[in-house]
Amino acid sequence: AKARGRGALCFFAEEMTLAARERLELESRLRQALLQGQLLLYYQPQVDIASGRIIGAEALLRWPDPQEGMISPARFIPVAESSGLIGPLGEWVLRTACQQGQRWHEAGLPAVTIAVNVSPRQFQLTDLVACVHSALADSGFAADCLELEITESALADRFEETLQVLLRLRDLGLHLAVDDFGTGYSSLAHLKRFPIDVLKIDQGFVRDIPHSADDMAISAAIIAMGHSMGLRVLAEGVETPAQLAFLRERGCDSYQGYLRSRPLPAADFAALLGAQSTG
Ligand code: C2E
Ligand code: CA
Ligand code: CA
Ligand code: CA
């Protein structure tokens, strides 16, 4: 039993080393990709449910890799977060999204909100307010067209510090959205003290509409609660007409999802927006 125990331990240690090595390698490749300008932002339309019009876009990171195709942000964001690379990476995302938004504005496209994901780690690693301020100032992008998405779990810890940062961000004139709402543990008492504009219903609650009575009840409750707090509510991951019909009936304001469009390269999103303004 003892020998087997040692064998298992050795095996375990080797696995750890392998995982750690892979992580380090991914991190250094990500750092290179950022430095060499290989990362991209895709844009997923956000649609007003009542009018069917595109009113915004969420900027989503894409990492094209010659060997692997696209590397998913779900894989590399955690690596960036644990290595601290999320600081410069997050700054690049903010600057790129603001520059892109300003270029669309200058090209005469209809004004839309651009939503940018902010990792909880960016609160700790960088002066987020200074970073956002300079991204806006350097690009000339209008602050009220920028929305920052903060996950519900990021709101749960360091309440007072987070609150102060959010208040200062709001003073810049931008909007704040709570991402993945319903998956964290933020209390309503806390939530109502944050200067929030939008709740994003997590796609996990949308996926099984209209088959899951629980998820329908939760989504409806989030919509009603958001509205009673004066917030707009956006549903994520809408893939079917039945999901959209349910959300419309419950008064949900807007949605994102494959039903309307996958995240698109910047030029494709601009084309979609341009087509909407003429027709
Ligand atoms: P998220 O912020 O919750 O983004 C929504 C994810 O759902 C995106 O995955 C999007 O492509 C996907 N999605 C959109 N519509 C549908 C749909 O109808 N069905 C399904 N099944 N999925 C849909 P993506 O682009 O792979 O991004 C994954 C996560 O990576 C994001 O989740 C976000 O947490 C993170 N992420 C992406 N870009 C950034 C970034 O610039 N900064 C930070 N900090 N995180 C990012
Ligand atoms: Ca998001
Ligand atoms: Ca989300
Ligand atoms: Ca998510």
From TrEMBL:
Residues in EAL domain copies: 23-277
Domain of life: Bacteria
Name under which the protein is recorded: PAS domain S-box-containing protein/diguanylate cyclase (GGDEF)-like protein
Species this protein is from: Simplicispira metamorpha
Shown part of the complete sequence: 613 to 891 of 894
